[in-house]
Amino acid sequence: MSLKDQNWMQKALRLAVRGIGKVSPNPPVGCVIVKEDRVIGRGWTQPGGRPHAEVMALQQAGKKAEGATAYCTLEPCSHFGKTPPCCDALIKAGISKVVVAAQDPDRRVNGRGIKRLRAAGLCVEENVCKEEASDIMRGFFNVCKFSRPYVTLKFGMSIDSRVAVANGESKWITGDVARRSAHLLRAKNDAILTGIGTLLYDDPKLDCRLPGLEQHSPSRMLVDSKLRIPATSHFALTAKDRPSYIFTTEKSDAAKKDTLTDMGIKIFQVPCSEDGHVSIQRCLELMAEEGITMVLVEAGGYLASGLVKSNLVDKLVIYRAPMIIGGDGIAAWHRLGVEQLGMSKRFAIQNIERIGPDIIETYNRCTEAL
Question: Residue 69 pairs with which residues in a beta bridge?
Fold first, then answer.
């Protein structure tokens, strides 16, 4: 792996980032086409997943693409989907070399794209900046590997891990800078998931309210076993403005389902888990089937703890305020059934930094928990 190839791939990776939260169910891919040490084409997956990064870059390069090198953050596709294979486009354009960051785990590709390029006489180099590319496409990779989206659990809490005082007051534990950061986090995810308890208490909008990013508000997901959601809630009244989903069980009222469906909400009846509530595992599988690859969870302790207990949280983002509420406050975490330290849920520290008067802590689930 040459330093020059790494440098060009870094440019492709910066392009790929532009698609995060905007291109599901496709992965956010970047591509740069280089000839004589000059970029002649740039591309990244466009909103909705099309056109693909390679096609966009080739359109910019035009006839100059002949004999050039393409730097692709993901193996070019080799199958006919909603667009023709990118492999064929690269071959037809006369590209002489393709540098790939990560192999596509999609069973329709999974190395076939690289084989096709080599069979056509192109030089292919693999695994250049693989870890960085895989991180950018972690949602897509998660769906391919586990049939569920990449789950980020976000909490705002005090030093002593309390999310509210005893009467439920929680606005605002963290400061304005942390709240803006949380809204940016929403824009980087395909969907936002909450529970009925949070909805009944806060009636949240679950949108991105940063200037210029309002159009990137994620789809909304609600776990509501008995369909207790009021038809007068913000979630229900604005369902036709943004994709909105509810996961419920057979315990819910059929007439209420019809009312909410007419309001624009898509309702899934999900099997119960052992505790009699919605099976969160099945909810996530259904999200993946709906094209969701990245989901942000903003919920109370019960749903959050259930996800952690089931090893379904891939990343923790905790905004921690420099205050102590005390034991009479509402705890962030419910019982996890941990009776010995060896049973605890392990996460690895990714980053801790100051954000205004608060601290943001980011943790990744340890690989042994996968």
Answer: 34, 97
How many of the other CB atoms lie within 10 Å of CB of 89? 22
* Residue 54 is a catalytic residue: yes
Per-block mean pLDDT, blocks of 10 residues, the chain (370 long): 90 96 93 95 90 94 94 88 83 95 91 93 95 96 95 95 86 91 94 94 90 88 94 95 94 91 95 81 96 95 91 96 93 87 90 96 78
Catalytic residue chosen out of the listed positions 36, 54, 250, 353: 54
CA pair distance 258, 90, nearest whole angstrom = 49
Query: pTM to 2 decimals?
Result: 0.91
How big is the chain by its Cα radius of gyration, in Å? Answer: 23
